[in-house]
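Notebook, bench 3.
Goal today: get a predicted structure for Bifunctional enzyme IspD/IspF from Candidatus Fermentithermobacillus carboniphilus so we can plan the truncation constructs. The sequence was checked against the plasmid map this morning, with no discrepancies at the termini. Length recorded as 448 residues. Pasting the sequence as submitted so the record is complete.
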Amino acid sequence: MKMTDRLWAIIPAAGQGIRAKTAVPKQFMRFGGRSVLERTLFKVVSLPDVEGVIVALPPAYLKDPALGQGAIDRDALPFNKPVLTVMGGATRQDSVYNALRAVPAEAGWIMVHDASRPFFSQELFYRVFDAAKVFSAAICGFEAVETVKTLVRPLEFGYTTGFTGFVGTTLNRKELLLVQTPQIFRKDILVSAYEAAIECGYHGTDDSQLVERLGYRVAVVEGERTNIKITFPEDFMIAETFLRRTGTSEFTPSTSRDTGLGFLEDFRQPRKSRSLRLAGFLPVTGFGFDIHPLVPGRKCILGGVEIPFERGLLGHSDGDVLCHATMDAILGALGLGDIGKWFPPDDPRYEGACSLMLMAELWQSLKVRAEITHVDCTLIAEVPRIAPYVEAMKNNFSRALHIDVSKVSIKATTPERLGALGREEGIAGFCAVSLLKKGRFSHGAQSL
């Protein structure tokens, strides 16, 4: 991993949580056997791309050993990643800044996530991180669905119970965004934004607001309505409901892109009365194959991973046979031709292109038509050795295709010295993709 690719996460957890009306700050309230903070921290630590986490705690929790030991159960955390604690400040902004100063120098990216949002999914994280890599700063959120008005508060209240003020004006909700976390930024940009805000005494309500002040564009990706921020007493009841629907109240470590929304799987399981997994979906399968020669002077790219080797695959793009076979399999399943029609080999725009990015672009345009249920790939190569890089390839496919890594299978085998591949002249890739094709069906027959 390059130094600039290293990602550290910050969790501001020093607030008092007054609106939750709890005996202790809401982030330390327990439900289902764990505190809100522990659940959020576990989710963040479980993200494969996160190298370490810094948690800003209330001063009392750092000064009092009894409180501090109960704040985070380190034995329950997976993967033995570093989890540092710093003293929080009077505001969220102060807490994040204190944590920023503790981030290792080699980190290139910073993720900030609210302690009281334990139900975000890994898929959401990757949407934000992928956008941040392109635009340097990214957040998630969704459009307002309710009418939003400004409120004019009178100086004195002497009217009726529940009266809070008068309507100022009605805002155009199509132009409004309800912002969530995680938010991810290039480290140097976020540090500069915080230093500029502190220098002039400016206080924002989220991290992106400080970055915006410096003139940077902040990208927005679609958030999740289930990514609730536990703020009020009734939010704990919602959280308990989530856990009951998942059928578990404890943590289950996982290296895959677990969505954290297992309760939704109730609506995705097969029903005995249906021949299809879901009404309106037709199971289809596609098969893809690609082969390229190995030549000197080229990088060896497979599954988006650069493998150290003295030769690479010859091609108009980077020659990634694994991505090419997968794209052909997807297109074949949907009856949309082959990658040559989508990315012509004589088009100068694709000369030296990253095939993983092309695959992500392809699926972005096709995902409205289908849902991927499984990807099964096989590489045939005498050299180089593939096994050490398989997990990285699977993670790349998971991101590019927006699917859980558990739905990706990548294997490698040798041709036992037979033929051109056995003579180390090239590498071939095969892929079978299973999809649920969207459409309208009747009695098991397709009617698009």
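The two ends are 45 Å apart (CA to CA). The longest strand covers residues 281-296.
Flagging this for group meeting.
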